[in-house]
Amino acid sequence: MKKANPRVILYTTSQCSYCRQLKALLRQLKVPFSEFDVSKNRRAFLEFQRLQGRGVPLVVVGEQTINGYRPDQLKSALKKAGFDV
Fold first, then answer.
1. Which of 33, 45, 53, 54 is exposed most, by the fewest CB atoms within 10 A?
2. What structural domains and CATH numbers belong to the chain?
3. DSSP label at 58?
4. CA of 14: how far to CAs of 1, 11, 41, 64, in Å?
5. What share of the chain is helix, strand, coil (3-state, %, to 5)?
6. Measured on CA atoms in the order 60, 63, 68, 73, is the torsion positive or negative?
7. Computed over its alpha carbons, how large is the radius of gyration of the chain?
8. Each residue of 31-69: pLDDT tens digit?
9. pTM, two decimal places
10. Considering only CA atoms, which of 17, 85, 30, 25 is closest in space to residue 56?
């Protein structure tokens, strides 16, 4: 039996163009994700800080955190986590 894929969490802001590009990439890859706007959600902002986010987008794939728009690093993390990308 195949293990369940870990959650993919995306921390964004509405005005961030790299955030929009990253969301489009995840949709293109058919990877489900949860999105939290750190400029509108205090709980998300506090979690973003706890994860030592240096800017948006910040992506969490399982246990791996990726700062910024890094498509190759994201795809590698997704593959390592068991996603078929």
1. 54
2. 14-80 (3.40.30.10)
3. E
4. 39, 10, 12, 23
5. 35, 20, 45
6. negative
7. 12
8. 999 999 999 999 999 999 999 999 999 999 988 999 999
9. 0.90
10. 17
